[in-house]
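Quick bug: Putative hydrolase of the HAD superfamily output formatted oddly.
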Amino acid sequence: MRAIIFDFFGTLTDPSAELLRKETIQATAAVLGVEPERFWSAMASSFPQRIVGAYGGTRDTLRAVARQCGTDPDDERLDRAVATHHAGAERVRTPRPGVLAILDHLRAEGYLLGLISDCSSELYEAWPETDYASRIDAPVFSWREGHRKPDPRLYATAAARLGVPAAECWFVGDGGSREHHGARRAGMRPVLVTNAAYPGAGGLRTDPDSYLPDHRIDEVDDLIRLLGSSHDNK
Ligand SMILES: [Mg+2]
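Here's what came back:
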């Protein structure tokens, strides 16, 4: 096994930061001048389209969703809303404690690291400025690719960009978006991060996976032990 492909939210990010998602979206609503609960609902219901890029970038997305809510923000208001929205998204993607050092360790061990994230425009736009970017060899974003998990094309793209056959890739995720089903079908070796130390985190997953991988770990740092004990880990 030469590569490890990670899910992003709830896997590399701090699962407890998911609890901030609603309040950050509502902070954006306040700047746009849209009723917060209505805006939250509109953002939630547009999620499937937003993560495959159908709304465009963050600025176009916020304008479109505000209009759906009956408000047409002017440019100045929209500028402030984009800034507020990006600041909120940064809070939601706070790294899981210790995860950056784990990524450094895995790279030092010689693994190539990839990412497959079902994400909207915010993560794609901010990625190069994040602490994750320099540690991930091949990030694959649903927003950019126009497909969401468990679409086989995302897994094939990640493996191809790493230059590694899918059969030599671990896929590590907290089990949203039927991602392990997709990883197994792609020929990768799935690992579930249970987030057992984060009560309620499982309830925040979108479209949870019914397939339960053989390999299960509570924390991402347990991955180091799992890889070390894997017999064909060459
Ligand atoms: Mg996840």
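Actually, after a second look the formatting is fine. The chain has a mean pLDDT of 94. Closing.
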